[in-house]
Amino acid sequence: MAEEFDLITLGAGSGGIAASRRAALHGATVALVEAGRVGGTCVLRGCVPKKLLMYAAQYGDALDEARGYGWQLPADAAGTTDDARGFDMAHWQAAKTTELARLEDVYRRNLAQSGVELVAGRARFVDAHTVAVGNRRLRGRHILIATGGAPACDRIPGIAACPTSDNLLDLAALPPRAAIVGGGYIAVEFASMLVRLGTAVTLLYRDRLPLRGFDDDLRTRAAAALEQAGIVLRPGQAPQRIESAAGAWRALLPDGETLHLPWLLNATGRHPNTADLDLAAAGLAADARGAVPVDAQCRTAQPHVFAIGDVTDRLNLTPVAIAEGRAVADRVFGGQPAPSIDIGRVATAVFTLPPIASIGPTEAALAAAHAPTRVYEADFRPMRHALTGRAERCYMKLLVDDASDRVRAVHMIGADAPEIVQSLAVAITAGATKAHFDATMAVHPTAAEEFVLMRTPARRLS
Fold this sequence. Notes:
Structural class: alpha/beta
CATH architecture of the largest domain: 3-Layer(bba) Sandwich
CATH class of the largest domain: Alpha Beta
Number of domains: 3
Number of strands: 22
């Protein structure tokens, strides 16, 4: 006989946890089903460990820059030119593992304190209201699909055998050389980090520039920054086939070259986790990419079944999944007319060094829409590097609607870009105009002050 719940959530990632706890807060009985560890991709295999690795890479840069400010490193004091420093991946790995275990324990305790029942195992639909988890049958008045995504391993022949970002973050030692296949977030972030940690990196991707979907001025500068860091960029050279032999890899490129590598990372993207759910038993069907189609309020074709986050393949960002999950719980169990999540105005960041951040449409998108727009730009060498000798630059862009004066978009590449754009996202969401930016007093000397000092448009889109 099936056990009854008000809500059954499939997947204990950020979105599933947030939705389950919010539903329980409203008095719902909730079962949260998870086949692996609690925390999901962001906490265990994505955002958190990735940024911890970024910090490790950043410290290496900081040590090099310190010389320009008068700091003597041990190798300098010894009168040698060789730097005896070295990155200890095993040490990082142990520290990272401890921190993730701490975070997982926090999630488990919070779920228990909220009254959410955590059910270990993999769920599959039996019918539109029932899922099977091992020998258990769980029946829910409502069901929430929050199973997230996984690395795509089918886009190039032979790539299924290659390590993914999941594997990279579990390494105890880094390879001396590596190729990364892909040009998106994951590819450029890990390329930027690995090269600073001692790995010689080649980036293989299909497009002319990395980071498709971002503003072209950011993409151009991101490519230049990657090259300045020592990464070999191979645009238009995503492998046609990958082969493994004797613990090494061969990548056959479109130009006829074959790369021989000790390590190769598959960063060709991710796909929704729906293959094992048996959606058809619930009267549901995934789209061509395996995503669960939903409406603006995250409802599927079955009005009592919802889907949120990466499994819908709309805007695959952790805060979006969390906001969607809480909105579903508030509407269904809290009686609150929670607004639909506006995924067209969400800030995002790429944690390369230097990092990138954006909110709003690209210049190309506004040009294609024939939207009269004023474009403001600033491009400068950060004050931080006045004494370091580094060639790193900072670039900022504001896109302003010509009719309303409203700031439509903010784009930036440079130190602290994610922190700066997160703050400006409040202004964008509130409908700030360029006049508001102009009336804001600058904090000097900062990089962020440039956003309120841009007075003359660099160009206009008619």
